Amino acid sequence: MNEFGNPRNDVRGALVAAGWREDSRGRLVAANGTVWAEADDLYDSGLDGPDGAWSWSVHFDSDVPAAVIVAACLAAAGEAVTR
Asked: HEC profile for 7-52?
């Protein structure tokens, strides 16, 4: 986690760099429609399938490392995961 500010800015920055776009609700959306968003003030977050949460959804607690979340998001969007 980052020492200051929002500890999920690391995830947000990596996904934006990979081409994900922020929607009007502050969620990040991949080209295929997969969505990642912070879930609460504790910095838990979630990943929803391209057809919305009714297709599938994954919850990440705030202590899950950014690298794990980013890799899951990229894989769900069908994008290459690189180091």
From this structure: CCHHHHHHHHHCCCEECCCCCEECCCCCEEEECCCCCCEEEECCCC
